[in-house]
Amino acid sequence: MKLYLARHGDSVVKEHGHEPLLSEQGKQGVLLLAAFIKPLHIHVDSIFHSGKVRAQQTAELLSTGLICANGIEYLTGLNPADDVTVMANEIMKWSKDILLVGHLPFMSNLVSKLVADNEYKEIMFFHPGSFVCLEQIEEVSWSIEFVLHPGLFR
Question: Which residue, 78, 84, 79, 91, is CA-closest to 109?
């Protein structure tokens, strides 16, 4: 099984008190990344996002570079302060390739939990718009297959 993880692209607050949206630079960066991964023919069963607009926008843009069987949906448990262990336990029940789109520090902590079984061990930093592929190599063991971010394409 492969698990794809993405952090939302660069964002900006347009009006005080409103939820941040992807900036134009953020949109372009995620689209560049989606164009790069398209020839890889990555298949996912579903794309899940945190419910925040910038994560949903990122999921929608990334979907242009993926083959997705069941579309894009909100999934609880992907927000910045959510419990990584709860999500890691949920992931262990899955058998199909999935993309999760979320935020810092959650995404970085989730990689650490899955790869090193320690969410506090810094394994990698998620730049805005990062796209990471983890591969399950044993029932409870994961390895990082690749890491991409929009800065690589500018």
Answer: 84
CATH of the domain at 37: 3.40.50.1240
The separation between CA 39 and the C-alpha centre of its own chain, rounded to angstroms, equals: 19
Q: Which amino acid is at 122?
A: E
The range of the structural domain enclosing residue 135 comes to 2-153
Per-residue confidence of the chain (154 residues) as pLDDT tens digits?
999 999 999 999 877 778 899 999 999 999 999 999 999 999 999 999 999 999 999 999 999 999 999 999 999 999 999 999 999 999 999 999 999 999 999 999 999 999 999 999 999 999 999 999 999 998 878 999 999 999 898 7
The structural domain count of the chain equals 1
Token digits for 100?
């999760």
